[in-house]
Each structure stands twice: as C-alpha cells, then as structure tokens.
Amino acid sequence: MHLRTRLKRLALAGAALAAVTATLPGAAAADSGDRGHHPSDRGLSAVIRYTEYGIPHIVAADYAGLGFGTGWAQAADQVCTLADGFLTVNGERSRYFGPDAATDGSLSSAATNLSSDLYFRGVKDAGTVEALLATPAPAGPSRDLKELMRGWAAGYNAWLRKNRVTDPACANADWVRPVTALDVARRGFAVSVLGGQGRAVDGITAARPPAAPAAPATRASGQDPDPARAAEAARELFAAENATMGSNAVAFSGATTANGRGLLLGNPHYPWQGGRRFWQSQQTIPGELNVSGASLLGTTVVNIGFNDKVAWSHTVATGVPLNLHQLTLAPGDPTSYLVDGRPERMTPRQVTVRVKDAAPVTRTQWWTRYGPVVGGLGPQLPLPWTTTTAYALHDPNASNLRGSDTALGFGKARSTRDIAETLRRTQGLPWVNTIAADSAGHSLFTQSQVLPRITDDLAARCSTPLGRATYPSSGVAVLDGSRSDCALGSDPDALQPGVFGPARMPVLRDTPYVANSNDSAWLTNADRPLTGYERVFGTIATQRSLRTRGGVEDVAAMAARGGLTVADLQRQQFANRAPAGDLAAADVARACATALPDDPEACRVIGAWDRTVDTDSRGALLFDRFWRKFTSTVPSAQQWTVPFSPADPVRTPNTVNTAAPGFAKALADAVAELRGAGIALDAPLGDHQFVVRNGVRIPVSGGTESLGVWNKAEPVWNPAGGGYTEVAHGTSHVQAVGWDGSRCPVARTLLSYSQSSNPSSPHSSDQTRLYAGERWVTSRFCEKDILRSPALRVVVARG
C-alpha cells in the first residue's frame, strides 16, 4: 500500500509538471489600469507542490503563471493579512474600521487609520505608482516583474473565487475582495518608502500652514526646533535598538569552510504579526528561474533566499533614506517658498477619505519640488510650520519601484559577482544591506541602498543650524531649501537623479567572513574595517551594539577555527549566548550583596545564571528584567567604567558600573517585579517567555536587543499573564545554506511564526513548535527531494 501510494504521488506530480511545462499558453496582455477591472486569469495556471510544514514549490511556464501560483498560495495561507494590506494601500481603512483605530504598522508609521488613509489615498489620487510603472526599465520595473504582478493579482483573485475564507479574522468580511496588478504595485511602493515617507505619514498628513499675516512677519521666538534636542531625537529615531525590524547575517568564504565552498546564515528580525511577515516558497520556471526562500507578504518574488549556486540575506541598514529641506517662506504667503530669491508656490493635494458611520474627511497636503511638507518626524521630532519656515521631506525611494527586480535578479544569480552586478543594474534596495555567499567559496557584503546623495561636503556647505546638529548625530541632513546650489546632484552611474551611484557604496569581498547586525558597514569584518563612505551611510569608529559585538566575537572565532559546515551555522543560531551577561553578570552578582543586603537569593540566582537565554536557563529572566531597567534609566555614558575605544571596538566599553546612580534601584525593582507577579527568581526562562497558539503554550528562547543575543526576541511583558506572553518581533525566517558539489544546495530553514496566520490551519504553529525545540526544516530544493516528501500534496491552480 505504501509503495502504491508513493507511485501515485509521483505520477500525479509528473503529470502536473508536464501540464505546466508543455501546455501552458503564453502570457496575456498586461492589465491596463485601475478602472475597476481585474487582471484576466485566462490561460494562467501553475502547479503547487506542498511539502512538510506547508511549504509550496510553485512551477509555471512563464512569469505571469509563476505570479499566479504565488498569489494563489499566499492567499491560501494569509488571505486576511493580505486583504487588510490592500485596504491600507487603497486608503480605505477608515471606511471599514473607523478613523481612530490603529493600523498594524506594517506598511507605514501612521498612528491611526485616518492618517494612513489620507497618505495612501493621496498617493493613489496623484497617480504616483502608475507613473512609476510607466517608467521604462531599468529606471522603472521590468516587463518580467509586471507580468509577475499581473499574475499574482489573478492568482489571488482566483483563490478567492474558488475557496471559502475560514480565518475568523476576515471570514465573511465585505472588505475581502479582488485586487488588481496596480494594487500589488502599490503595496510594493509602500514597502519601498517605509524608511522615508512611510516613516513620516503623520507629519505629512497633519502639516497645516499658519494663517497668513497681514504684514511681513519676523520669525516667532520659541517656535524653531531646538538643535540639541532635535539631534538627540533624530538619533533615537534612527537608532537600531529602537527599530521594529533588524537582522543578523554572516557569509563565510571558502577559506573557512570544510569543503572550500561558501556558507551563509541569515537571521532577519521582523514582526511576528501583521503584514510584514515572511512567507516561504520555491519558485520555478524551468530553464529560467529556480529559487527558494522567503517573501514579504504581498510581494511577488523571493526576497531572501538561495538557489543551487548562491545564497543571500539582508540586514536593515544604517543608511538614512530621507533628508529634509528647510524652506524659507515668501513674506505674507506661508504656502510659497523662496529658491534663489524667487517665490515658488507649493502644490496643494486635496484628499478625501470615506469614514465609517460619518461624513467623509477632506484634508489638504502640501507638496514642493523636494517632496511633501512635513510637520515632524514622529512626535519626538516636531518641525513646526511657521509664517517664515517650513520643512519638506525628500524620499528618493518614492521614485523607486525596482526592489523586486533586484530580488528577481538575485534568484537567477550564479555567484556573488552576479549579486553585485544585479545591484549595479537594478539599484532597487531601499533600506537594507546585502550579505551573500556562493558555491565557489566567495563572500560579499554591500550596503547598496537607494540613498539621497548627501555628501559630507554638501552637508557642510548647505546644512541649516538644525542640520548641523542632526546630521552628525543621526545622518539626517537638513539642507537650505532656498538655494539651488544645495541641490543633491547626480552620480553618473545612478539610475535616478539625486541618489548615490553603485561606485559610492561600501563593499567588502572575499574576506574570511562578512557580517552585519544592523550597525554600520565599519566592522563588517573586524580585521578589515570599512571606511571612506559618507556619514549618511552610517558612522565610522563609533560604539557598536552588544549584538554586533557578540556577533563579531562569535563569527570571527568560527572563521579562525575553520572547517565550517552548515551544522556550525545551526549551532550559532541557537547558541543563545547573552553578551551582556558575559560582560556584567559576575559584577552584578558581587555588587548585589551591597545593593540588596537582605535578599541573598537574588544574588545567588544571578551568580549561578549560565549567561544564556535558553528556555531552561534559570536566572535569565531576572537578569533580563534588571538589565532593561538599568539600561533604560542609567545614561549610556555611565553604564560602563571602561569607555569605548575605536582601537578595541569589539571589547569596549566594558566593566559594568555598579556604582552608577540607578543600579541598586534597577536591581531591587526587577526582584520586586518578579515576586509581585508570582514568578520565582530562578524560574526557567521558557516558563515565562512563551507564545500561545490554539490554547497551547509554546516556550520561546532568545533575548532582547540590549542583551546582545543573536537569536533576538522582543517579547511583550504581561506579568498578569505570567511574564512574556507574545513576541512582537525577532527571529523570523532563518536560513543556513551551503553546498557540497552536487546540484542540490545544503539548506536548513526555519520560519519562527509558521506559514499561516489562520489558527485553523495545520501550518499556523507547526514551525513555531520547531523553533521552540531548536529544530530545523531540511529544505527540499531538488526535484527528487520534493517528490520524496511524505507530506507531498499537489494542487493545480487554474484561472
């Protein structure tokens, strides 16, 4: 019986493949617009082979068919999350959910649905994405990418037509509806501007001109931003430790490995809920493309992945993908600004948003030659619009819809050299670094971002007093918008004006290791520091985060040891070493007797802690709660007695300052907090750091940013619920990839939060349980391995 079942599966898969590769017609004409028509799925189909953990292997004859299968399969796993995102990019959240509710934050920083809708409806009304789609490649998206988007929309719609939505998050909801290829492109635009306009949505939609005075006005005192406060606010706004996304990645060259081939470990730290989740698949067009990895929901391509020759990952970069222009307003007219002494009128964009159970809301946004007028970058950095001054936001990624073409090129790459060439040709990555390795033993790091062309010389010549404070502290340039000689200029090798060309990007090739943990490019390899780049890319010779320091220690030791295999990458992912514990726990335990003379148990627990954040680690929770309080209340300059030294950046600063004001209180408060919640000081971490899926507790290892743990977890503290009861963001899609000389890569993967957000799906928590057990999925990349899967299930998706 078992043999007959296996043969039947093989025959079915073979027939499905033959149907795809031999009989599918060519792609139909591209969808022409957003006039209520949905992309035709006539003739489109794909074969989807599901293996363990619900991972789909999608095969199609062309790009439209591949998009069709991808849209179908994403809808099957994530229809509610996807539908919610399409409401966002069409500016319709207020219509269905009310204006005051919060978004999930996946596609912008908007605090409310109304703010989100005003921004995205403005993008839609202005035809911004249509103009980008009409831009000829390579500055605009390729024909292959357009076909993928057309197919994705058709596949999503076909799944909706043929299946009942069972996810309670949107079952029977009237906002789950068909989409167009333009909707898919709009979602890609939202991802592209996440670090620029998307970061400032509330500031764009709330900016209002002051009433025009009857006579020319002088600058009102006290209304300008304070430069010192603005500098600190900008630094905090762009600091890696405050980000809701991050990553680790390391590539080892063949000089360090057991077989002379490259190795790559990618460990992105992305949200565990909402529309910025990853989703796994393999995409194949026979003879054209064969790539496996993870896609951000709603995207048509594999964003992080591998093929039979090359593997790559991304880390969120320190490059600042925006800048500000300080406008000098025309006397008597706050909606006109001066350039070289001549007035130039702002362009008003009147935007109307439908609102649930209320009249529509209409607001006006104001745009300039530089971009939209913005009233602030978050609540911590207000930029007041006075009668004499306003601020405009410049985001070069608002002209960039090429990110998916970059990913598509990576999927077809045969080497790290091809990865670099794809970046040169497409120039599409908005806010990430790239780390890659290949089967020939090469390693690559490059910070190839679409960044505003802010040179240090330009900043020195053209910064306003505010910019002279914010640029050194954060990389946020504030330029004098009244001078045309302060324009950003162009590099000859750049695809669009006002950005850096590929020749200006920080790059490191073929060193024993290249690694990044969301600090700047400087310590990509501690033995070969990268320098010579402009401040907007990041800092040089400044203090690194504990996660960077711990990561460099680990991977440098691995490279020095040599003989590395994929198994070594797997061990590194779950080593769960807490660098903060190695640096501070012994000193904290010694000082504890003085700080808590009547509580020897707390001192004993910290002293006995094994300095890891494994689920069975005792004392990890107590140290974690103390360390969070200590680092959040004691200024960074007072936390260590040995200061940072650029000559020893991995080992400094060190020696925790137990005499710092606030040390004893942080320790006492942590002890009181745990006891008040009924949590034993030496309780195993996993008893109080967990997620609940379908009523079952799943313990989670890992630790917060300030502890410096590679396997990062940013859990949600809920003492009434037993401790950390959910993960907001952290380790998401992990891949450990190498090669052994065969046609099949040696790859292990893990999607920490699993494929589906539908609690009724068998794949809503299966990989979460693997993650809890520190177990991996053996990737089935080659055809023979796919067909041998005991879980093989074949779906032929047709229009």
Structural summary, described in words:
With 799 residues, the protein is of the alpha+beta class. It has a domain at 576-709 and 711-731: Orthogonal Bundle (Penicillin amidase (Acylase) alpha subunit, N-terminal domain). The chain has 22 helices and 29 strands. It has a ten-stranded mixed β-sheet with strand order 18-16-15-8-7-6-5-2-1-29, sandwiched between helices. Strands 3, 4, 19, 24, 25, 26, 27 and 28 form an eight-stranded antiparallel β-sheet that branches. Strands 9, 10, 11, 14 and 17 form a five-stranded mixed β-sheet that branches. Strand 6 (289-296) and strand 7 form a beta hairpin. Helix 9 (227-237) packs parallel to helix 13, helix 16 packs antiparallel against helix 17 (600-608) and helix 18 (620-633) crosses helix 19 (663-676).
CATH superfamily of the domain at 576-709 and 711-731: Aminohydrolase, alpha-helical knob region
Percent range for β-strand residues: 15-25%
Strand order of the largest sheet: 18-16-15-8-7-6-5-2-1-29
Instruction: Catalogue the unreliable spans.
Output: 1-16, 19-37, 214-222
Average predicted confidence as pLDDT: 93
Distance between the termini: 34 Å
CATH topology of the domain at 576-709 and 711-731: Penicillin amidase (Acylase) alpha subunit, N-terminal domain
How many E-type strands? Answer: 29
Number of helices: 22
CATH class of the domain at 576-709 and 711-731: Mainly Alpha
CATH architecture of the domain at 576-709 and 711-731: Orthogonal Bundle
Helix content, binned percent: 25-40%
- Estimated radius of gyration: 27 Å
Family: Belongs to the peptidase S45 family.
Keywords: Hydrolase, Signal, Zymogen
GO molecular function: hydrolase activity, acting on carbon-nitrogen (but not peptide) bonds, in linear amides
Pfam families: Penicil_amidase (PF01804)
